[in-house]
Specification:
This protein has a single domain (about 5-74), classed as SH3 type barrels. The chain is about 10% helix and about 55% strand. The protein contains one helix and six strands, in the order H-E-E-E-E-E-E. It has one helix at about 5-10, and strands at about 15-20, 25-35, 40-50, 55-60, 60-65, 70-74. Strands 1, 2, 3, 4, 5 and 6 form a six-stranded antiparallel sheet that branches. Strand 2 and strand 3 (about 40-50) form a beta hairpin. The two termini are about 20 Å apart.
Amino acid sequence: MEQSRPLDSLNQSRGKRVLIELKNGKQFVGILQAFDIHINIVLDEVEEFENGELKRKLGTTFIRGDTITIISPQ
């Protein structure tokens, strides 16, 4: 199936590991569980990175869409 919209591509990443980068430079890597039209995102098994360094491990985490600059499937 051809991906015609950004949300289609994001939907294909559901259940897979993704990298999320925020406006403040922090990065989160986790398994994409859910998202909505505002790109609010729920990740599982989250690791938080700052300046490329692992800061902490989190469980299930909600990230507000308007703080996100990059979403990259891994």
